[in-house]
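Much of what follows relies on a compact textual record of a protein's fold. An example makes this concrete, so a full record is given next.
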Amino acid sequence: MPHTTVADAADVAALRTHPIALLPALLVCGAAVLLFGFMVPLAGYAMLAVGLVVAWLCDRSGRTERLLADLALIAVGQVIISTVSLKADLSDAGMVRFAVVLGLAVLVPYLISRYVYREHVIRFPWRTGRRWNRTQWLYLIFVTLAGWLILPFYFITSGVYQNWPTVTEPDTIARLFVGVAAVGTWDELFFICTVFVLLRRHFPSWQANLLQAIVFVSFLWELGYQSWGPLLTIPFALIQGYTFKLTQSLLYVFVVHMLFDAVVFAVIVYAHTGWPAIFLLAP
């Protein structure tokens, strides 16, 4: 008999689910590896289609409920993202292209969920009304120090800083700052507030977190976090999902991400210009 489970008390809704739901979810989220990691879009689209068909069969059998609807939103977002190269481009056209496509990848699933499905599952809880506790403040300090220690060594010794445009002039440095901050903000809107939240309707939080991390890390790989970068991006994606589960605060995970990205920005500039010379372990 089908059974109903709730991932935890914080989940949006209790939907009928079944362990077999992991198969279509793995197919849909795993398609990101093909789309953004190996950059073979046709194979990625085929994997998405198979995943959605399997989700439909799961729903049709009565073992799951609304699995197809939620996985379809994740698939739509991935397809939209895949329409452009994620290689960093600081030109006017490149920044506009990024803004439009990535914006649509968040907006379209939200609008479908809100006005077609008539649900309010995808939310962006900037304010929770709760003050941050001492642990949260200490964690912000830890994230900043960890990035300051680790990121210079990673970016420079691996050479991945070259995946970003050369920034030596004030205008390109300013564009890089805007771009890094904008993409970091978008990461939380899509991977956490959209993908992770939708998956938590059907899976325990730890499974949903692992699934969203597949999509998150694949995107970051194409963006430029390559070489041994997944050793950093996998823990980061998982911790961001777990942090959001604990705090239910988009503002908090956003601040964490911005602190980390501030170090990323400074390291890329340093790698190209030798300034600011503030890193202890820079090669």
Remarks:
- The longest helix spans residues 170-199.
